[in-house]
Design a protein that fits this description.
By secondary structure, the chain is of the alpha/beta class. It is built from ten helices and 20 strands. The longest helix is centred in the first third of the chain and has 29 residues. The two termini are 23 Å apart. Bound molecules: flavin-adenine dinucleotide.
């Protein structure tokens, strides 16, 4: 596909817009089709904001099946499977459970980490080149533990990540408070933490919107408010996209539709196991809170993060298997709110905060699908699950290279359609 001149990118989330940037930079003419009125309004809207290679261990781990059973039916569960969702979850769930063993977990971690680290480097390059300001917080991530047992379990992950080259430092409670003085009143209530200094955080939505503006000024066409209905192929070769506004022909097509990707690809015989795993966030204004934390936190036990982004604090996370339901469940929001207030009881505006829910495009092994499909000219960049912001720039640069017929920047083992 070295001569791909016009590429149509389906989806204007963080993954689609980053792809548009790398494609346009490599000389392609690019059209982005997005059903919403602007870029980044779906899952990329109010996520946790963490650019976090330190969370490269996939959800499919040896401990997860036991954890799901232990928490079954509990609204305060970090990992909640709704009974109504079970019929639609069977095939994906079996694939997920098959990955919940030590060997697959380790292999998947290594593959995710390779992509996440590469992606973080590409993000820095992109920012240097475009000047896009996404309210970056470069203070790393502090994984906090309330009890010694969970700290010990996670220390094993930290050790493995260290062996793979990820820097981290284990801290006792006093060390956590030295790193983040806002924790000084919590020293008796935490067991300690692990700080990953090379992580970063920032607003994925701001990044997506501002990068879309840069792309537009570089000639990328954005067709907002246009829904993709069908991808057309002729004799095994991509020919055009049918949208609500008509037929759009191009030399190549890149699918970056997040949780909608699988449905648009199925008629072409391409089956992707992508489940929409629901998560929530609540964003609090810092306002006049002088003691507000600056270091981003991760709470592995609650599958949540508490992240300072500019003059806001975002509490985000939890996983709910509930099909495509997007209702804002007040109990799940209350859980995030109390997670935040239990750590920072002196936050002055206790009742405020903007609640949001989004659907992660989750694959069983935690890795996205990148690159070619059996349909010539049709490419994938989708299924980034809980780390789509982290993996966006790397994935985008890889698929741009593949579409141009070039070598990808890293080994793609575990990230393509082949063998999965
Ligand atoms: C609560 C929560 C917290 C998270 N925290 C983090 C974090 O801290 N760090 C991290 O790295 N990741 C995080 N994630 C994951 C990350 O947000 C996602 O992986 C990422 O946003 C996926 O990006 P995307 O572009 O693939 O999907 P999306 O942002 O959903 O983009 C897909 C786009 O396709 C469009 N679309 C869909 N169907 C059609 C159609 N038929 N026609 C036209 N357009 C269509 C949609 O409107 C949408 O804009 C979190 C997710 C959640 C839910």
């Amino acid at each position: 596909m070295a001569d791909a001149r016009h590429v149509v990118v389906l989806g204007g989330g963080v993954v689609g817009v980053a792809s548009a940037w790398f494609l346009s930079r490599s000389g392609c003419r690019v059209t982005v089709v997005e059903r919403r009125e602007a870029a980044g309004l779906e899952t990329s809207f109010a996520n946790g904001g963490l650019v976090t290679p330190s969370m490269s261990d996939p959800w499919a781990s040896p401990e997860i099946p036991g954890m799901i059973l232990k928490w079954i039916g509990r609204e305060d569960s970090p990992f909640l499977v709704r009974v109504g969702a079970l019929p639609g979850l069977a095939s994906w769930g079996l694939k997920f459970l098959r990955q919940c063993n030590q060997a697959d977990w380790r292999r998947n971690t290594r593959n995710i980490l390779r992509l996440s680290t590469f992606s973080h480097e590409r993000l820095h390059e992109l920012v240097r080149e475009t000047g896009v300001d996404f309210e970056s917080n470069p203070r790393g991530t502090l994984h906090l533990f309330r009890d010694p047992l969970s700290m010990e379990k996670t220390s094993r992950t930290a050790e493995m990540l260290r062996a793979f080259g990820v820097r981290s430092r284990t801290l006792d409670p006093a060390g956590c408070a030295t790193l983040e003085p806002a924790l000084r009143h919590q020293v008796d209530r935490i067991a300690g933490g692990i700080h990953y200094p090379d992580d970063e955080a920032g607003d994925a939505h701001l990044f997506t919107q501002r990068l879309a503006a840069v792309c537009a000024s570089n000639g990328v066409e954005f067709r907002y408010g246009e829904t993709v209905r069908r991808i057309e192929a002729d004799g095994g070769k991509f020919s055009a996209v049918r949208t609500g506004a008509g037929r759009l022909a191009a030399d190549a097509c890149l699918v970056a539709l997040g949780t909608e990707s699988a449905a648009r690809l199925r008629p072409l015989g391409i089956r992707l196991p992508i489940y929409p795993v629901k998560g929530y966030s609540v964003t609090f204004p810092v306002g006049g809170w002088n003691d507000a934390p600056a270091v981003p936190f991760a709470d592995d036990g609650h599958k949540a993060g508490i992240v300072r982004i500019g003059d806001r604090i975002r509490v985000a996370g939890t996983a709910e298997f509930a099909g495509r339901d997007r209702t804002l469940n007040p109990k799940r929001i209350a859980n995030l709110r109390s997670l935040f207030l239990s750590l920072f009881p002196d936050y002055p505006e206790r009742s405020g905060g903007d609640a949001w829910t989004g659907l992660r495009p989750m694959t069983p092994d935690g890795l996205p699908y990148l690159g070619p499909t059996p349909v010539e000219g049709l490419f994938l960049n989708t299924g980034h699950g809980h780390l789509g912001w982290t993996m966006s720039c790397g994935s985008a640069s890889i698929v741009a290279d593949l579409i141009r017929g070039r070598e990808a920047g890293i080994d793609l083992t575990g990230m393509t359609l082949e063998g999965r």
